[in-house]
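INPUT
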Amino acid sequence: MSIQESIKIIPKGEIAIVEFDMVGEKVNKFSTPMMVRFKEVITELSKSSYKAVVIVSKKPKIFIAGADIDEIQTMTTKEQFMKAVSEGQNIFNMLEDLPQIVIAAVNGACAGGGCEMIMACDYRIASEDSSTKIGLPETQLGILPGFGGCVRMPRMIGLQAALDVILAGKLLNTKKALKAGLVDRLIHQNQLLDEALKWASELIKEGKGKRRKTFEPQGAMNKFLEGFIGRGIVFKKAREGVLKATNGHYPAPLKALEVIQKTYGSSDREGSLLVEREAFCECAVTDISKSLIHVFHLTEMVKKQSGVPGVQMKPKEVKAIGILGAGTMGGGIAYVAADKGIKVRMKDLSWEALGKGFKHAQDLWAKLAKKKVIDQYQLNQKMNLIGGGVDYAGFKTLDVVVEAIVEDMGIKQKVIGETAGNMRADAIIATNTSSLSVTEMSKGHPRPEFFAGMHFFNPVNKMPLVEVIRGEKTSDETIATIFELSKKMGKMPVVVKDGPGFLVNRLLLPYMAEAAFLLQEGMSIEVVDKAYVKKFGMPMGPFALMDEVGLDVCMKVLKIFKKAFGDRIDIAPLMDKLSAGSRLGKKNGKGFYSYSADGRRGEVDQSVYTELGLPTPTNPYDEKECIERGVFAMVNECSLALIEDRIVELPDEVDLAMIMGTGFPPFRGGLLRYADSLGAKYIADQLETYSSQRKAGRLKPSAPLKKLAQENKKFYAGT
Ligand SMILES: NC(=O)c1ccc[n+]([C@@H]2O[C@H](COP(=O)([O-])OP(=O)(O)OC[C@H]3O[C@@H](n4cnc5c(N)ncnc54)[C@H](O)[C@@H]3O)[C@@H](O)[C@H]2O)c1
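OUTPUT
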């Protein structure tokens, strides 16, 4: 089939339906051939006698997903981008200038170029379906809307609403899109086309002509803020907001802001679009944009995977799950499962403990209801999906049980055996253990092929990663089922081999341990954490992270690692002192930081220095050393986990896991993409230097890292 089939004109009397249905793809996107075809269609319409045009998509849940990101990734020069963006702008101008009334009838995702296209139409009607989301996510990919989005959106929906969408790279649901004025009307999905055609006929009959929608601010304050003086305040606040949220690591939102500032209110379409495309090209060629696109591809990769490479493996259907333990993790897992429509049965030792699990889930939905994301009816429906008890009643109906009880091998093995006895023989049990061996634990299960790890991160509702752990006897079908279940719960699964700390905790531990040495050697907690957050871009520094995890848990896991990895793990003497005291971190409000009654992190608790017998910090090292010692310790451990132990198979999986499980800065593309950008030789040399200067054997570069350095290879090509 030819590209002609991807965008068709279907005559309907004096109205032309333009139908998008990209051949050979699940989604419609604006690739170069699609743009060429769209231009042909618009040219044909401009010469036709149709009086109105209705644009629709034939894809079930996608209107137009945006530009073709694979194409963007292959472009490297400013000239290439300039050519593509100029042509895109030109085609949407042609659409805007068509003599006919043009109505976009949107059902499904309408993002980036799709949203820019509908803004070049005269009218917009959208389906009420929950798949309909409209917006401009470009800044999340390190670029900015370049097909006229920065120019048309503020004109249509006002400065404040447009900045809210563009700077954060948001998609709006239908209610918000209607409220903002991004669409004119909403209708049930089944009536969308009929209603759009009816509307077009009415507009023709009423003699209504073309429309270039402009925003009409309501109320004195909004009128002031849209006015010449008020705008200055809006731009200043927006800039401050972006800098606060990004620490200046993401240039695209600032560039978009600059474009809007230069073009808002101007009637010079050509001039404004020129400003937009120059800014687009500046952003598109940066490494930051390439890294963010790399991260986008990593998440897309997971959507297509089954968890079992190279094998056609159908996962079992999971309709109902059980959860053993309704504590911190159990309650969170119940929430994410029921939120996605999965029936849940929790089991704990007492009704009191169960109540905590129910409350955990209810509180999270109540917050959403307060923000009007869901209504009371939806909240009740979701809560109704969660049941529970103190016995195994109903366990025979469950497809999977997630175990989240106390972290003790003996107890877990016993409870797993007992649970298996109360379930169907083909049902799966998955443990959420964070530090125990899945293979060892599976010995408690009479059929270990039906047993795996399903390691969620805390807080479960916020952290996207799930490590799916394959024990020695876990079957492919079990892995595929847990992988698919994780996706169904809205998570990003990565399959990991069994081993101490699996992947993410194994890499994080040397990083946290190194921070303790920096403190021991005279660095202050504030300086180290600030370097990681402000300069490197981590969501929190290593000391704040240790407080989150719990200082007792850190110490316990460090000891497990020391036993497993020997000299590679060194524990700073102050950690021993710390764990002997009463500081547990956030959970008892006393850690490296102090905490308010509602658990909010305050300032560094200065008494920690004296308690640990440390003199006033002199901060002997610069930020570079602090960051390199921690991050390179992770790279060093990763070289062993990936190349020697094959805990995961691909550097892609490391990068995805570190971004989704620790918040490793996405603009750096992940731990190994960042390591590759520096080169293995640089990292190995620096580790050698720190190791000898600071007398730190733990920082000696590993054999696989040295090999990469000697052979001048990268992680992404060397595995
Ligand atoms: N908290 C974290 O940050 C985190 C992160 C990842 C994984 N994990 C792992 O998840 C598991 C649970 O951790 P948590 O933090 O939720 O613990 P928690 O103490 O908050 O909850 C454990 C719950 O299990 C219940 N329980 C104990 N024995 C039971 C049994 N025999 N049958 C049914 N219920 C029983 C307890 O009453 C309690 O409600 C542990 O294996 C832990 O290592 C924890």
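end of record. Residues 505-718 form a domain with the N-(1-d-carboxylethyl)-l-norvaline Dehydrogenase; domain 2 fold (CATH 1.10.1040.50).
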